[in-house]
Input
Amino acid sequence: MKKRRLMAVMLAGTMVVGLLTACTDSSKVSSTSTESTSDSSKTEGTDTGAEIADFKIDASQIPQEKLDTTLYVACSIRGLENPYIATIADGMDMFCEYLDSIGQKYEKQVLDSGGSNDVEIDNMKQFAAKAGGNAIAYADPNESAIAPSLAEAMAESGGYLGTAWNKPDDVGPQDYDPNWVIHTSADNVANGKATAKALFDSMGGKGKIFVIEGMLGNTASNSRVEGLEEALAEYPDIEVAHQDTGNWATNEALTLVETWLNDTPDVGGVWCANDNMATGALQALDAKGLKGKVGVTGIDANPDIVEGVKDGSVIATVSSNGYLQGGYTLAVCYAVWTGLITTEELPENYRTFLTPAIMITKDTVDDYVTEYVDSIPEYDFSDIWYCKADK
Amino acid sequence: MGEKNQAALSIREEFAAKVKADNRREKLMKWAPVGVLAALILVFCILKGSSFLSLSNLSAILNQWSLPLLVALGLTFVIMIGSIDLSIDGTVGMVGSLTAIFVANSKNTANLGIIGLLLAVLCSVVIGFLVGVIHVKFKIPSFMVSFAFMNICIGIGMLSYSGKPATIRDPLMMAIPKASFLGIPVITWIALAVLALCFYIQEYTPFGRHVYAVGTDETIPKAVGINVNRIKIKVFTLAGFCYGVAGIVGALRLGQGQIAIGTDQMFPAQAAVVIGGTALTGGKGGVMNTVVGTLIMTVLINGLTMMGVNPNIKTGIQGVIILIAVIFTIKHGATVISK
Output
């Protein structure tokens, strides 16, 4: 009996070692994917009506009874611990100031999912039920798969939802008419590619890099990595020495780079799928005296990373502009709730589209700081399609 | 008559043999965790060669080991009295967040230096004390009380920086994660100091012995007049102290205060304590077991990371290896419950 157990354990051990060796090889191969399923291809289309593009909320057209009804406004997010996500909530506040200016009665709320799919769906259900149809919400679905569930939660009680970043490819706002109004995303593929190219250029087009992905299975992370792979295809002398997920987290990225530096001390750059992880990478490099010598890139424009761009330790980051995403998504939903526009009259490229992003490098960082860090940008939320990248 | 004697003798012999076998097994089990650790190191050395054993990687392992060790040290005492503590993710994250806003930082004008660190640890000591008091006074299971405190602490931590984490600017604090003494990172020295303290408490104080007694069978120390409740409160307070130091180490290493410093620390710590040989039923094990247990977990993650295992299956492999380690190291058949 004992022998048999020992045998079983040994067998399992051998299997694991076998797996380990096998995986090492396979992980290195998975780099180039030629498929170009960039988000942009899906959202391109002919602009059917110039009137739609020029649409603006005219407060005088909103019926008084709507203005007097309490509108419930929410943003559903993963938690306020991330600086980027905090700007989404700021965007909601800015939009609410606009509501104040036109005399709309409202109540606002932040729905914090704490990174849990179930909590996010439950939050949305409760919020929608409470509002009884008088609800507009921005949601950043924790994972792609739950975007339809959030739309369904809203559809049950008749409110209006706009989602960002994550949704399954085969489901979209038009499947939940009229309650799922829009789905937007920053052009992750383009952003991932742009930061990668900036990094490779800073390395003179050759050398070894570390790649730190975001959460596995997350659309934003996958698309950013896809952009990186497109860039890698253009720079044949760049070699990926290590690639792993840092789960969007600073401490995990720190551990990864700290470990990798021991077998690849000659690394030339670190590409990170977001700025939180770039912070961790910088800490690991700093401990080895390599900060400033090995370039790092991220995405999100966290304050410390923007500072890094200024002092030269960070090559590039991208601002997805959470103010704009949070504020304008709500503005579009508001226009539909008031009845000033209907979802039927919106062509598909006004239902699913890309939002503009701001690339921050050494050359542009000063302008960015003046406009977005030292002051909060001002937006005209009546011009609801200002948030469309191709407008 | 002779036959009867014969039977009695054989029973006695059988019993003696059984005791002997048990003792042998016990001895073997005691060293099993060390064997697992050695096996892991051997496997990674074969697969990854000199880079795994390089001085710089050993230093990286020590760095990565410090925080889990601190967390697991605190948890060891809690598990030894047969309780459980779910507050870890919250307390560690809270102290990490507070540390960054107490010392010179990018967010406010505070500049408390070392006093800031002490203040941050004090917060988690108070939390640990409260968990203990509420657990024993209101007779609420420790996992429930500590779960509530996990959420409370996450709340405090998040509130402290509201979405925009503070970056540490204190030159001394910024230098600590880069510094080493006798080839060992200063961060690790901090963890080792707490380890020494915990070892001293466990081995050389009455409190340490009482912890074992409470974990084995509460009624016995109660019968001899030991205040069991007070022991329990002390254990949770000590645990709070360890989590606090872990939070500080986390913040110093990141150079930033975030709740994420504590995220997902609890289950690996639990696994490390159990793999090290401390029984979930209480009364068995100790801090040295935890040293081995946490080293196993750290070496495992470091090795897998260095090997470049495909991230899609890394977590799974980690699980399989933990399972194997547990099969080797914990005593089977014992009732596994937590009070």
Summary: Chain A touches chain B through 51 residues (CB under 8 Å).
